[in-house]
Amino acid sequence: MDTISRHQLLAVSIIYQIGTTIIFGFASGAGRDSWLAVLISTMLGLAIIMVYVSVTQLNPGLTYIECYPKQFGKWLGTPIAWLHPLLFLYIAGRIVADINNLVPSTILPGTPPWSILTIFMIVIGYSLFLGLKVMGRLAEIILPLLGIIYIAEVVLIISSGVVDLDNLFPLLDKGWNRVWKVVWPLGVIQSYGESLALAMVWTSVRPKGRVGRTMVLSTLLAGSFIAFTDAMAISVFGEEIFKRATYPMYALIQAINVADFITQLDATGVLYFCFMAFLKTFIYLYAAVRSIQKLTYAQSIRSFIIPVCVIAFVLGLTMAPNVIAHITVVEKIVPYSPIYLSLMIFIPMVLMAVSWLRRKAA
Amino acid sequence: MAPNGQGDSTAGNDKLSADLDTNLKQFQAVFDKCGDIQYRPFELNEALLGTFIFLSGLGNINAVNMDLLRNAIESSLIEQSEALTEDIKAAIHSKLGFTSQTSWSDDFQASVDKILAGELAVLLDGFTSILLLNVKELDTRSIEEPATESVIRGPRDGFQENISTNISLIRRRLKTTQLKLEMFTAGKLSVTDIAIAYLEGIAEESLIAEVKERVGRIKIDAILESGYVEELIEDNSVSPFPQVMVTERPDKVVGNLLEGKVAIIVDNTPFVIVVPGTFFQLLQTPEDYYQRYFVASAIRILRFIAVVSSLLLPSLYIALTTYHHEMIPTMLLISIASSRETVPFPAFVEAMLMEVAFEGLREAGVRLPRPVGQGVSIVGALVIGQAAVAAGIVSSPLLIIVSMTGIASFLFPSFQLGLAFRLLRFPMMIAAATFGLYGILMLMLMLLLHMLHLQSFGVPYMSPLSPLRAGELKDVLYRANWLKMSKSSKSRG
Amino acid sequence: MRKPILLLLTLLILMTQTGCWSRIELNDVAIVTASAIDLAQDGKYKLSVQILKMKMTKGISENGSSSENVTLTLSAKGDTIMEALNVIQKKIPRLIIFSHNRVIIVGEKLAREGLAPAIDFFSRHREARGNSYLLTTRGEAAELLKVPANFEIFTGEEMREEEKARLLDSASIRDFIYRLFEKGIEPTSSQMQVIPLSDPNGKPAKEEEMGLGLVGVGIYRKDKLLGWMNRSEAECLLWLRNRMKSSVLTVAIPGKDRQPGRVSVQLISAKTKYKSKITGENIQFEVAIKMTGELFENSTKLSIKEMNNLNFLQHALEKEIENRVNMTVKKLQTQYKSDVIGFGNILHRQHKSDWNKKYATLWEEEFPKIDVKTKATFKFIGTGRVNESLVEEEELEK
Hints:
Chain C: InterPro entries: GerAC_N, Spore_GerAC-like, Spore_GerAC-like_C, Spore_GerAC_C_sf. The complex is a heterotrimer of chains A (362), B (493) and C (398). Helices cover 76% and strands 1% of the residues of chain A. Chain A is mainly α and 362 residues long. A two-stranded antiparallel ribbon of chain A has the order 1-2. Chain C contains 14 helices and 13 strands. The longest helix of chain C has 30 residues, at 307-336.
């Protein structure tokens, strides 16, 4: 059985939730209040995640996907359930597209994207064959490492003398309006709503139980991490540059300069991003193959791995012609699309209500 | 020594007859053209004939011994002249058992095995069984300091080729009945003795059973070194990483036995296998526990740095100089660039060339006789390196990188693990040359995934770091004070 | 179990098959150490880059005192920076990389026309670093690149070292862009000129005696250069912006017999706090500067053993500081009407609703009208190795 421990789940979800915000920034539309927007999104996101958790708790023994046919009946539940692997695949394709856009334009100019993505997908495929257990262990090892590197970078940025806390003020300069604008729905869906894919992992946690507590902890940690990073980026750049930069966090790493010796660490920033994207893609594809396996009643997930990897590869390669189109879709269109909103927010709520009522009745 | 029945023996008659000549003929037929088998016929007082059969050179048998032996048998026979053979057996047993291990065998094939194992067989006329005396004493070298694992502080005895000596070296450190040694033999032709050592109550039952099962499963013609056993019992033999620990040091074996591991001692080799082997265990030396713990912890950290740099240093050099110039501080970049100016090769070829040359030098140093070997490495490292830089074939920063990598790879306490990292350095360099840091990251991920997937006898290779067992980290990332470590060893009993 | 090996093999084969697309060997790059942008007669940009000649640097590192110039200055004209760069690229066989560009020098003419179009390249380009310093110079920027280096291997490094010491207000590309975008603060950049090393007045006899020096700062409104501020005013800006590293302050103390003595103080720290007040249409700023320093030169007759004398000196220094700050602010308000100190920014922080409603768009007109009150406090934290003034001892002997 492919299991992970609670500690590993924590590591996986923290990395997963921080995810690609490490380079794209989070809620940068809110200007200098973006860290506040992050905290608010975290609180709302926490509520959403608790909905997912309670759905799986109300249907013990079933993966999240299987709850739909069980609660909504075969004819309504199965189609809804089938939407999920498709959604997961789509988002996985989005992340692969991130790699497709970022890596060639920053650290490997001139290298054809397909070759970069092929390498990426090979590693993803290999990890999918090894399974969740190995990935849990990987996250467990990498998280402390990332933490140490991150702390080092914070120290380096501060000692570079570029941080000016005055840039964080005045607070709520333009009022709550622009904060709300990024919180709903983008802020809630990004990172937190996307934790839906993690719901496919929860049933593999051994020893069982206390998934909710782990998720709360990871969400809070990830949220405060993002908020802190945002605040730091603002205090380095000021609001205007922060809003203008394509990759605010990437620029943040570029600002490091210690004793003229440690400079231009931007390539390491991209490496961070690649690792984060790696884990996120893994979780999405894993959730996708698990869902497909559950829905087709197949014995093993192995036969689905290669097709799913190929689909994600093709999606990632063809999805967006350039980074602006890509980010526009991710920030302006996707969060408002009914499929996203309903699958991530509304239907789970209905599912929770139905499960709860049925349980009461039983 | 309980021999395994060698089932596929060719001799038709397994039983011995009462007639000495028949028996002798049978033995002579089996030992046909075995020049090292010696026969010594003798005659006892009451016209009782007998023959000694033994291997020359394997036992401490000389004229005096043999005469004494004959006298001893004779006197037992006199005392018990009227008694039945059973009594004679007992009498001889009691007389001779004082000086050597004796046994009676009426099985022909078993006797042949024992003679080949170095025991002295005494054939007596009128007896259907043979008296076997264990006078085995192989000529071995004395106990010396292990050549591959020397320490500054710590015991200086090392294993040698004789299994019983090796066992005694372990027993000397663990005077407890909990130390169990189970004997096996393996190898169709070599019939090598293998001992499985563990501490009862500390090592897990399932682990012991698994080791016994795997050792019992070994099917091979001959075992010349414990490396054969290692490859036949490890979990994943296509991995570059060693999954068992191999050591020449008794104190290291005992230390691991105390941690609940199982040792496999193979005859005719000083290298003892300890299972399960984990990555971090392979990075520890016994000296870590003998030195003051602050120093030992610092050395462990140094070792981790060495592990990373022996794997990544050349590939980072390639990646940074060919893809990510901006990450090199300007002044350093200028000095690297100016020394590279005359180098005709791309950085990758240059690095590959030097690394291969370095590995070659190292191998040459091992193979050559010791006094010459040192000369080779000095000539290689200093003269060739200098000349190559002066001729502008390689750049001096690269030479520094290669030497630093070399030094780092000498820091591995486990030679096998060092080998794995030396090997992996090359794919790493290829990855760096094609995709820069991105390639390094992807290959590293792949390696990490592989290492995390590996298991050795049910124990994950990267434990206790992952899956995390926080309590054990104090003996992995650094070396805690004994006062703090004793807590866990107490609970183990 | 064979899978990992197979995967690894395919990975390796793929890697070797695909070759190395973006690989650039160090032998094939030309490292830009400094670049200069000017506006040419025909309205085109003239980009000049200072490139290291690798062959020569080897000579330098070996014998230390090669007099030959290790850098090569190339220039070209173009409608955009990128186009000019492309022309330069065709002149040399190596790929030009900007990732180690130390400084960007802008000529006065271009600066007065507006910098934004020119520095867009440097904030957008993949290789360019935001840490490069932005310098302005009176006259041709390209001239500065031709001055031979006296201490470092190349002049780019020298300029950067001077900027880093922050004896005058320095600005990196990032700082400049930040202040360009941020409301209520205007950008500045250091002014660097070729100056004679020995004699500040007379003409230098030989070429070797020329060096690069920071002489003041350029004051901008938006991205357009308005004018210059001299050394002492620029130092004053550093105090006001809390960016002083070290500085020297000299004050004349009138003596009893009409022979003014002078006191020179090494400033150790300067901390400035602002308080803004809006009363009706009036905006008032209270600027409180706290400074500490060490007395290093005293040519007055005052003995600093006496507490009174020390207080007197401190008081005189405070007056001097207040004077200089007031003069600087006045000059900004009247001559340039550009808020490079960031009063608007402070007002925004302290009165955000008023700012958003009234001043955000009108700050340019409002700034000259604001009322700035300065209050300085100065504390000695050291008086050097002697207590008594040497001058006074001489007097006593008479």
